[in-house]
Amino acid sequence: MALLDVGCGPGTITADHAALVTPGQVTAVEVTPGALELARAEIAARGRSNVTFAVADVRALGLADAGFDVVHAHQVLQHVGAPVRALREMRRVCKPGGLVAARDGDCAAFAWFPAIPELDDWQGLYLRAARANSGEPAAGRRLLSWARQAGFTAVTATSSTWCYATPGGRAW
Fold first, then answer.
1. Is 42:12 a contact under the CB 8 Å cutoff?
2. Which CATH number fits domain 2-166: 3.20.20.10, 3.40.50.150, 3.40.50.2300, 3.30.870.10?
3. Confidence category of residue 7, pLDDT binned at 50, 70, 90
4. Is the pTM of this model over 0.70?
5. Cβ contact 59:92 at 8 Å
């Protein structure tokens, strides 16, 4: 199996993918060399040898057509101007019959109790900053629409909620 992890960030999910697709290959992509270094360090710390790294923009990956069985992006599209173009590019590099899996948050839907003014301030600041940087912090609610615009026809849309209700969860 060949898996592409777009916007791999610190590499924690990438390392989990690498463990699952052994003896397959994972390609981890980030937009800058510095960002990719975080993933390299995580992969090395976990002793994974089936991961390669590439600097690329999800809107123009520079990878071969139909080269991956799975193309994965977690919390990426909210940061990307032109997310439909990004999804089209992810579709292009995915093999026919393969899987493009995208998951994103919806910052505008975040809720907490009791009300904490500092978190309210953070939410407003993040919404403004993300949009000023051409992102969409409410990407989660738009994924199905974006997927359809990108040409996907067989789409499964889901939603989930994280509840930090335990001391350990809140500490995390």
1. yes
2. 3.40.50.150
3. very high
4. yes
5. no
Check: CB of residue 62 under 8 Å from CB of residue 75.
no
60, two tokens: 């123009």
Domain ranges within the chain, ordered by starting residue? 2-166
Q: Which tens digits make up the pLDDT trace of 8-28?
A: 999 999 999 999 998 999 999
Element (H, E) at 98: strand 94-103
Do the beta carbons of residue 54 and residue 28 sit within 8 Å? yes
Tokens at 120, concatenated: 């309210």
Helix residue ranges, H only, the chain: 12-21, 33-45, 83-93, 117-132, 143-149, 167-171
Please list the helix, strand and coil fractions of the chain in percent, rounded to the nearest 5, in that order: 40, 20, 40
Residue 9 burial (CB count, 10 A)? 18
